[in-house]
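Sanity check

After download, print the first record. It should look like this:
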Amino acid sequence: MSYVRHTSAEMDELAHAAQRDGFCLIKSLIPKSLLLSWREAFAALLEAHIEREGHLKNRGPGRYYVTLPFKAPFAEPRIYEDESILGVVERLVGADMTMVQLATDTPLLGSDYQDVHRDTPPLFPETGRETPAFQLAVNFPLVDVTAENGPIEIARGTHMLSKAEAMRRLEMGEVALEPVYMELGDVMVRDVRGLHRGTPNRTREPRPMVVIGYSRRWLFRPEVSIRVPRDGLAQLSERAKRMLRFNPVVESLDVPDETEVYQAFAY
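Expected structure tokens:
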């Protein structure tokens, strides 16, 4: 399934980097031609989203979270079942992972710095300790990500600290926010607990960043899901059916979904 083949040892190394730093980069993994078709199809979705609910400012000024429909070109097994991606994901959250999210984050001209945040609270806050990874964001852009168009900034290693301790270290200069630049085709596997923020897009072109969410088999967050059309279900591989098992099956994707319910995102 992969276009770029990674050995088991290479995937071990990528997973180790994610465990250590909170994220890893897989360079030049997805063919650019595939992503260009996504970018073309996404433009109309973004326009419709802004017209329908842009007033909600669901990720801050000039920044939009848009769920992608699970149909062509976005329902692409060459990406969500890519052997390198799933090899790293499996090493982090287990072989029986679930695929729970297919969406985008897109800052436009006029966007700003987000507050530093995590994308999920800890599983057991009463313990004051973090656990191994339980939820991952697999990110890939639909354009090159540069210093000018809004790179994510991440503080390495903060995924294994309490938020209070991580913020203390950030404020004391013991850790720093680092921009992550990516080329079209690169993939980032990220533990969603790491401190991070979006930055301003100072260009006139949108900067769409796709997120495919993978979780451990027992984790369910009702604010995110993938609507799977019934007529496409039979065409999925057995692995895809298993990964998507907790998502709603719908008769049609022709009727637009309700307003995005994933509004509270910062923890």
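If your output differs, re-run the checksum step. Summary of this record's structure: The helical segments are 8-21, 32-53, 77-80, 83-93, 163-171, 230-233, 238-243.
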